[in-house]
Amino acid sequence: MTASAFQHTHSSSYARLEAEQLTLKHGKTTIIERLNVTLPEGQVTAIVGPNGCGKSTLLNGLSRVHAPSSGVVLLNGKDIHSLPSKEVARRLALLPQDTLAPDGITIEELIRFGRHPHQSALKQWAMNDQDAIDYALKAADLIGLKDRLLDTLSGGQRQRAWIAMSIAQETPLLLLDEPTSALDLGHQIEVFELIRTLSKQGKTLAMVVHDLPSACRYSDHIIAMKSGEILTQGSPKDIMTKELVRELYGVDCDLIPDPMTGSPILINIQRVRG
């Protein structure tokens, strides 16, 4: 099977992820209360907001890592916590902030882990598993590096390898928690461009992003959060205003359209005083 044929076969799986009246707590502390959200299918959603506002908690709640105190997360209309783990793993992949891999592992060996949800006692390694790995390597532009040890890679290459593992998992939904954290500008662009490519192939993606200009440039939909609540959501061009930036981050700025993409660019940024 060619990479393009593999892409065509697997890019159109149905995946709808939504939360209804979702409440999430850490211990006795309520982080998110009665929140409703739906991820637009086939688009990139960026979750933005100040530190501690509940962005990562929301992503963990949507991915079944964090069990709700009340409310429900629905995957294709079914309570995600009622579904078998492997069924969820065939629909949804999560890339957390902190990723750990065994020492001495190569890129291709890491990506093989993404096929685990498709294995069983009756179904071991098959040709379509290798097709998925080959496709993931190509999608993440890692074919020439597949035999390299993970710990010898640059930050951007390493993050692309982790995303490639998620691609090999062959899920229509991909959730990423700060995928460009600690990366320099060039490596950030590498990762964001890969995310855009995956969206064009039909995947639904949601990512927690700290850098607001990058969120505006690389996402189709923004969820703006503060203190565990959604202040507003919609396309960057529709919702991003000076007033919203001030409410989120306590800064004043001007907004101009990017001459190439039309997405909002923040200029004349300064901390609100007084």
UniProtKB/TrEMBL annotation:
SUPFAM superfamilies tied to this protein: P-loop containing nucleoside triphosphate hydrolases
Keyword set, alphabetical order: ATP-binding, Cell membrane, Ion transport, Iron, Iron transport, Membrane, Nucleotide-binding, Transport
Subcellular location, record wording: Cell membrane
Pfam families to which the protein is assigned, alphabetical: ABC_tran
Membrane-topology descriptor: Peripheral membrane protein
Stretches assigned to the ABC transporter domain: 17-252
Highest taxon above the source species: Bacteria
Principal place of residence: membrane
Protein name according to UniProt: Ferric enterobactin transporter FepC
Originating organism: Marinomonas pontica
